[in-house]
Write a structure and sequence with these properties.
Blueprint (H helix, E strand, L loop, with lengths): L8 H12 L3 H15 L7 E4 L2 E4 L13 H14 L5 E4 L12 E3 L8 E2 L12 E7 L15 H14 L1 E12 L4 H8 L7 E9 L2 E5 L1 H5 L12 E8 L4
Parallel strand pairs: 3-4, 3-6, 4-5, 6-7
Antiparallel strand pairs: 1-2, 7-10, 8-9, 8-10
InterPro entries: SAM-dependent_MTases_sf (IPR029063)
Protein name: Methyltransferase type 11 domain-containing protein
Organism: marine metagenome
């Protein structure tokens, strides 16, 4: 795999500073260190997704309690429960850090027990899936993984590939932090993703997220006023026609 940012400590530090700023090198460890003290003191809170109230998710790993993962993980869990017992593929190794899972996980770089290390573009599953789920992963495609590549082209190809893996009636669900990848944001603004359904959530307080329209979500700043993504898109796709 070479010295990619996900398996090279020096490369990962350089990438982190470039994407999030040098201050986060100090703030993130502090948040992680104090998480065991902070999380028990956080008040329970909920947000609404598809007319259903879901609890915010607090977890010390990767500052879930302080970032967009507070809504992404409950949404991922909601879809996993809907498709319990079905054929599920996760692109990007995320939910195993938080949930007990029994589905296939594909991740190009991250190594771990049971993880299939392959690019989604090269993956050839022996079966089709009822649900393909990806949490905070597609914004990195062509933006953080390789140079001299059009991020928009790679993202579009990855979406098309995933839709081709869906069984009849299956669904592709992506959670996409906004403000991180400018190319992805432009694609969303221009309605180029081709999703069948889109939901936008904006962070309006330390423990508050609200459903908003695309314009309000895309106008949110990344890293301000709250850490990391201040708005998230949940994009849902059906399988390819024909």
């Amino acid at each position: 795999m070479g010295s990619h940012l996900y398996n090279s400590r020096l490369g990962k530090v350089a990438w982190f500073v470039r994407r999030f700023g040098a201050a986060e090198l100090f703030l993130k460890p502090l948040r992680c260190a104090f998480a065991p003290l902070i999380i028990p003191r956080l008040a329970p809170a909920e947000f609404v997704f598809e007319d259903k109230s879901l609890p915010l998710f607090y977890h010390r790993y990767n500052m879930t309690w302080a970032t967009e993962r507070a809504v992404e993980v409950p949404i991922a869990r909601e879809f996993l429960e809907r498709y319990a017992g079905k054929r599920v593929l996760e692109v990007g190794n995320v939910t195993p850090y938080y949930l007990d899972i029994a589905h296939t996980v594909l991740d190009k770089y991250e190594r771990g027990p049971g993880i299939i290390n392959a690019d989604i573009a090269d993956y050839a599953p022996g079966d089709r899936f009822d649900l393909i789920l990806s949490v905070s992963t597609f914004e990195h495609i062509g933006f953080d993984d390789e140079t001299n590549v059009d991020s928009g082209v790679k993202i579009s190809r990855a979406i098309t590939t995933c839709r081709g893996f869906l069984a009849a009636g299956g669904q592709l669900v992506l959670t996409l932090p906004l403000g991180y990848n400018p190319t992805l944001d432009r694609m969303i603004a221009d309605r180029q993703l081709g999703c069948n359904r889109a939901t936008f959530l904006k962070r309006t307080g330390r423990l508050a997220w609200q459903t908003v329209d695309a314009a309000a979500a895309l106008a949110s700043g990344y890293g301000r006023p709250f850490p990391y993504a201040n708005a998230v898109m949940i994009a849902q796709f059906e399988g390819l026609p024909g």
